[in-house]
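pinning this so it doesn't scroll away 📌
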Amino acid sequence: MKSRSAILAITAVGVGVVVAPAVGAGQASATPATTCTMAYLNPNVAPLPLQANSVFEASAGGNGKMTMKVRTDAVSVVGYRQHVSFTWANLDTGRNGGEQWSKRVVGPTNTVTFPGVKTGVGRITFQANVSNTSAVDAKRVTTGQCGTEMKAY
């Protein structure tokens, strides 16, 4: 998915955002990375306050390429359909793009990886989005969004 817009606006009740470095204090990382976390209600039981989450991670791989990962804890034994998308923009070159993926998620361990994303070298901003559709009632949808920035080399 190529996009001229670097930001897709999605709002929802109960959305929380946390931005953090991918490594803790005192730890070294061979690959620079950044993460942001999206929190949202489990769509199967919304409006009950059972919160699920997805973590977006971007890591620089060199030669202007990056790997993006989204890890989801669905907080559901039934599962639900999740649509993941992210956009990126290189603030130094003006290049931009994005990716998307859709799959049923269930349980605490769901990961999708987008390797070799050609962002180019420079400052890169990211906007990640998830949309979750209930397996019980297709009219129940919850969403999450987060953004972060890092340097690609």
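📌 and the second one:
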Amino acid sequence: MGVDPNTLIQMFEQSTLSGWENASNIQIQALRVCPDIREYMANYFAASGKYSQLQGLVRSDPLVAASLSRSNYDAGRVLGVTRQSSSLTVFVF
């Protein structure tokens, strides 16, 4: 069972866009999203300035970019980022 769109939007809206420089641990968390919801989310993100800001941060942060390069995902598939202490969790779909 995949994640519903409201949960995805909430995760995105609660994303951390600062404090990444103190992170020493990056975890990539893949979320199951069906193609229809992926398209819906792409349209939602297209209307959001925050998404382009998130994309820029993901691409420019060396630790996050390196972690993504070792996964099957790229910056275009990042949904959100949360920070807890020195750890970042990068949610991808």
